[in-house]
Design a protein that fits this description.
The chain is of the alpha/beta class. It is 39% helix and 22% strand. β3, α3 and β4 form a beta-alpha-beta unit. It is elongated.
């Protein structure tokens, strides 16, 4: 998952980004003013935006209103130094999905962020199931049947992204855009490497295959036959 963090307090921004990366495995882009943040929000695909209200160059409220007017539905979690009823109502009416008042606990921020990402993809429960595969997005564990499967961090992130979009074909480009920040060089075969590792660990020991390639289009997570039986239109 990829998060845009728009926060002008650099130390706080660094602490939040570190927590997202180390505890959730998320890619994080940091913007230190509203104008930079808005440019990034229009230029990249994000699964969540964490937005401070008091920002230089473009305040958080204006950012939020313009972002929603442009048709974006990405969840936005607002950070605010004010928690009076009027301010909260204004934020929510402007398109915020949730808010936290400063100061806040990082574990609460992480929990609310994960909940918003799940809600944004239609997966409200923290445990995602498909056939005999179970993925706990809180504990970050994966089981198939009675066996727990040890995944490398990036293998887990690829599987989590696919699991949040069951039966949807996800392109290699989309995976790269949502799993890495803007410093990543996107011309690489790393996705194929991670998919191969996931197949070896999750599918090879089992009769029912879950990870499929749709030739020329991308990858899909669903129970079924091998790649030969899958077409983009099905």
């Amino acid at each position: 998952m990829r998060v845009l963090l728009v926060e002008d307090e650099r130390r706080l921004a660094d602490n939040i980004a570190r927590s997202f990366r180390e505890n959730s495995g998320y890619a994080v882009d940091i913007a230190v003013d509203g104008a930079q943040g808005f440019y990034l929000s229009e230029s990249n695909a994000y699964d969540l935006i964490v937005l401070d209200m008091l920002l230089p160059k473009l305040d958080g409220h204006t950012f939020l209103v313009r972002y929603r007017q442009n048709g974006h539905v990405t969840p936005v979690l607002v950070l605010s130094g004010r928690d009076d009823k009027e301010s909260v109502v204004r934020m929510l009416n402007s398109g915020a999905d949730d808010y936290l008042s400063k100061p806040f606990d990082l574990p609460e921020l992480l929990a609310r962020s994960k909940a918003l990402i799940r809600r944004g993809t239609g997966q409200r429960a923290p445990v995602i199931s498909m056939a005999d595969l179970q993925m706990d997005t809180v504990e970050r564990t994966v089981r198939r049947g009675q066996h727990e499967i040890a995944l490398a961090p990036m293998e887990y992130r690829v599987l989590e992204y696919l699991a949040h979009r069951p039966r949807a074909v996800v392109s290699k480009t989309e995976l790269l855009e949502h799993l890495y920040d803007y410093n990543w060089e996107k011309f690489s075969n790393v996705i194929e490497v991670y998919i191969s590792g996931l197949r070896r660990k999750i599918d090879d020991p089992n009769r029912v295959k879950l990870i499929h390639t749709v030739r020329g289009h991308g990858y899909v997570l669903r129970p079924g036959a091998g790649v030969e039986a899958i077409s983009a239109g099905r």
